[in-house]
Design brief:
- The chain has helices at 3-10, 16-29, 33-39, 44-55, 69-72, 77-83, 106-119, 130-147; strands at 85-90, 96-100, 123-127.
- It is mainly α.
- It has a three-stranded mixed β-sheet with strand order 1-2-3.
- Helix 1 (3-10) crosses helix 4 and helix 2 (16-29) packs across helix 3 (33-39).
- The longest helix has 18 residues, at 130-147.
- It is elongated, with a radius of gyration of 16 Å.
Length: 148
């Protein structure tokens, strides 16, 4: 059993007996276990914190903050959608902060490395919530409107 599932049980989010059924239900419905748990009333932020602990990546939450258009331009929308990555900020120290739904995805990590090297910026990866990811994808519409 992977560390995320162990932590879900350990922290009392789900009972061990219920986990197998939930996973099968998630697989058959085509949504992730996390989405299923959120649909059942588990706070998304709690799940992201547990997953971040399991994966060893820091979590970051937007809390209704908008990503500045200049920062959005650092990652093309097509790449953001395909690799499930979003730019979050460029810090005062000129570090590109990238949010990822799966920071262990090697292809997404390679994409971030490529983008950051093109921009000549160091980067830091954060685990983000699905709702934040979807919200930032919506912000690309504003970027498209600005470019037109």
């Amino acid at each position: 059993m992977d560390k995320f599932l162990e932590l879900l049980i350990e922290k009392g989010v789900v009972k061990k007996e219920a986990l197998k059924g939930l996973q099968e239900q998630a697989d058959s419905s085509g949504i992730s276990l996390e989405e299923m748990l959120v649909n059942q009333g588990v706070k998304e932020e709690d799940l992201v914190k547990i997953k971040a602990e399991a994966l060893g990546f820091p979590a970051k939450f937007l809390k209704d903050q908008r990503v500045p258009l200049e920062v959005l331009k650092t990652v093309p929308e097509e790449s953001a959608r395909y690799y499930k990555i979003i730019p979050l900020a460029v810090t005062d120290e000129n570090v590109l902060e990238i949010g990822m739904l799966d920071p262990t995805d090697i292809k997404a990590q390679e994409a971030v490395q490529f983008i950051a090297s093109k921009l000549n910026l160091p980067f830091k990866i954060y685990l983000i919530a699905l709702s934040d990811f979807k919200e930032v994808l919506e912000e690309y519409k504003a970027l498209g409107a600005e470019m037109t």
